[in-house]
From TrEMBL:
This is Glyoxalase. InterPro entries: Glyas_Bleomycin-R_OHBP_Dase, Glyoxalase_6. It comes from the Bacteria. Residues 8-116 form the Glyoxalase-like domain.
Length: 127
């Protein structure tokens, strides 16, 4: 017997608003039953678990113990710029001069996530 991962839950102050941000990040739609003011909503990913946003009363206080890592279909640096334009905040730069590494960003509620190199950037580094 095994368990199947149903969703990745994110506690937040504004479930609908944060889900809209992550919908923009992933290019995937919100659950069609979602509406502004909902205390719970989901972003329906193409495959795998959904991103589930749950409104809670307490604010985020510390560094995430679990975070999402994104592999863009464009370059890592182009994706960082796109996500900053969507409302992300730049937290830490772990990009190296040789092109390896990642960038750490936060969503509008301060949840950290990483932007990795794209598959094509990784392949070009290791022909």
């Amino acid at each position: 017997m095994v368990s199947v991962l149903q969703n990745v839950a994110v506690d937040c102050a504004d479930a609908y608003g944060l889900a809209l941000f992550w919908s923009g990040v992933t290019g995937r739609p919100l659950d069609p039953d979602s509406a502004p003011g909902d205390r719970e909503t989901r972003v329906l990913l193409a495959e795998g678990p959904a991103l589930y946003f749950n409104q809670v009363p307490e604010p985020k206080r510390d560094k995430n113990r679990l975070h999402l890592c994104l592999r863009p279909d464009t370059s890592r640096d182009q994706e960082v710029e796109r996500l900053l334009a969507l409302g992300a905040t730049f937290l830490a730069d772990h990009r190296d001069p040789d092109g390896t590494g990642w960038a750490v960003l936060a969503d509008p509620e301060g949840n950290e996530f990483c932007v990795l190199r794209s598959a094509s950037e990784r392949a070009a580094a290791h022909p």
